[in-house]
Q: What sequence folds into this?
């Protein structure tokens, strides 16, 4: 028989009168938060990279138009 103090799982006593519902375990919630924050970080990096790329292309086009850069070919 396994003693609760030696268990790796938390012991939750179910109270039938309680209005609070039991959610997922802490590890599951932390993993879900990590996935969610990973998507946000990836999306932010893609947005920033796209903005920087567009700015570089715009700068080069304006520089060619102004005659600052010349086509060497």
A:
């Amino acid at each position: 028989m396994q003693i609760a103090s030696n268990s790796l799982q938390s012991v939750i006593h179910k109270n039938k009168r309680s209005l609070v519902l039991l959610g997922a375990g802490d590890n599951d919630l932390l993993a879900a938060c990590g996935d969610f924050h990973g998507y946000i970080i990836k999306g932010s990096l893609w947005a920033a990279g796209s903005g920087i790329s567009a700015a570089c292309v715009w700068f080069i086009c304006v520089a060619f138009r102004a005659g600052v850069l010349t086509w060497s070919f």
Notes: The mean pLDDT is 77.
